[in-house]
């Protein structure tokens, strides 16, 4: 296409940079292996991790209470009340001041992502709310496309750690669990991203994730194996009995097929299930309006 055809029409606002934008000549920044850490330490990512660290600290400050019931410790409601009160302040630490108007909307997804304070339960719908929280941050420009790997394996992974701590500390019930026929009592997305991480791995195959030795040796490096380890810590008995779906998946020949199957399963079992989506909230950043055809 000729240069003249690419140029915006006179008076068009297209591609006009903000008045405060400071441009620089792009240059290489990754010169040595240690430099690889630069993209993992973007300011927005670090602020999100700090936000999650705060939630983690609040768990330590809110110990379980003595109660007759083993499950659903009521101290969780005290922890949640703290988040409910501070959510907008927490989100404001991540969002630049010129985007402050978005904070109340984005904060709703953070509050929705940690479980239900009435039922003291947690499930894939809450997990989806955290994905929506990250999606909103992407849509307003706080997170960028080149942050995507760190978003999953640094921020979302830290979120998982905090949610597991919540589940263990307050003995939260799984929301909408399908028992042995479900993939997992609490999570789904880390199995999708974790299987993607393992595609074309030279040694680890799907059959290895039911091998206790393989899981213990490699779980810190692979999200999928970390999920499996948590299951084995929380459940007793033969793996094939307490996690039948995962046991069946271990027979799939390749990680790419596992990944494709899990994406289809997530669509069918989470995104298209009324009990999950009935609780999802829509706003200006994630509207419910149908897609308009061009």
From TrEMBL:
One of its GO terms (biological process) is mitotic spindle organization. One of its GO terms (cellular component) is nucleus. Its EC number is 5.2.1.8. SUPFAM superfamilies: PTPA-like. Residues 1-20 are annotated as: Disordered. Pfam families: PTPA. It comes from the Eukaryota. GO terms for molecular function: ATP binding; metal ion binding; peptidyl-prolyl cis-trans isomerase activity; protein tyrosine phosphatase activator activity. It is found in: Cytoplasm; Nucleus. Keywords: Acetylation, ATP-binding, Cytoplasm, Isomerase, Magnesium, Metal-binding, Nucleotide-binding, Nucleus, Rotamase. InterPro entries: Phstyr_phstse_ac, PTPA_C_lid, PTPA_sf. It catalyses: [protein]-peptidylproline (omega=180) = [protein]-peptidylproline (omega=0). PPIases accelerate the folding of proteins. It catalyzes the cis-trans isomerization of proline imidic peptide bonds in oligopeptides. Acts as a regulatory subunit for serine/threonine-protein phosphatase 2A (PP2A). Modulates PP2A activity or substrate specificity, probably by inducing a conformational change in the catalytic subunit, a proposed direct target of the PPIase. Can reactivate inactive phosphatase PP2A-phosphatase methylesterase complexes (PP2A(i)) in presence of ATP and Mg(2+). Belongs to the PTPA-type PPIase family. This is Serine/threonine-protein phosphatase 2A activator. The lineage of its organism: Eukaryota, Metazoa, Chordata, Craniata, Vertebrata.
């Amino acid at each position: 296409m000729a240069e003249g055809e690419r140029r915006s029409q006179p008076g068009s606002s297209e591609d006009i940079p903000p008045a405060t934008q400071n441009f620089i000549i792009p240059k290489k920044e990754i010169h040595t292996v240690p430099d690889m850490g630069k993209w993992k330490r973007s300011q927005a990512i670090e602020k999100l991790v700090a936000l999650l660290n705060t939630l983690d600290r609040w768990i330590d400050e809110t110990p379980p209470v003595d109660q007759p019931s083993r499950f659903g410790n009521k101290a969780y409601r005290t922890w949640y009340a703290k988040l409910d009160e501070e959510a907008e302040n927490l989100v404001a630490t991540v969002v630049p001041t010129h985007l402050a108007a978005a904070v109340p909307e984005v904060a709703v997804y953070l509050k929705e992502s940690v479980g239900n304070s009435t039922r003291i339960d947690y499930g894939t719908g809450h997990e989806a709310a955290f994905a929506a929280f990250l999606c909103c941050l992407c849509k307003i420009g706080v997170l960028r496309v080149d942050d995507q790997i760190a978003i999953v394996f640094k921020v979302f992974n830290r979120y998982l750690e905090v949610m597991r701590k919540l589940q263990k500390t307050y003995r939260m019930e799984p929301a909408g669990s399908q028992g042995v026929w479900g993939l997992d009592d609490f999570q789904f997305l880390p199995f999708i991203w974790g299987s993607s991480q393992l595609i074309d791995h030279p040694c680890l195959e799907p059959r290895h994730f039911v091998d206790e030795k393989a899981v213990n040796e490699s779980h810190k490096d692979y999200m999928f194996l970390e999920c499996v380890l948590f299951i084995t810590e929380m459940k007793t008995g033969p793996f094939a009995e307490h996690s039948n779906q995962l046991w069946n998946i271990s027979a799939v020949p390749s990680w790419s097929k596992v990944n494709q199957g899990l994406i289809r399963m997530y669509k069918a079992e989470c995104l298209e299930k009324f009990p999950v989506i009935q609780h999802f909230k829509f706003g200006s950043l994630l509207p419910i309006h149908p897609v308009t055809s061009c």
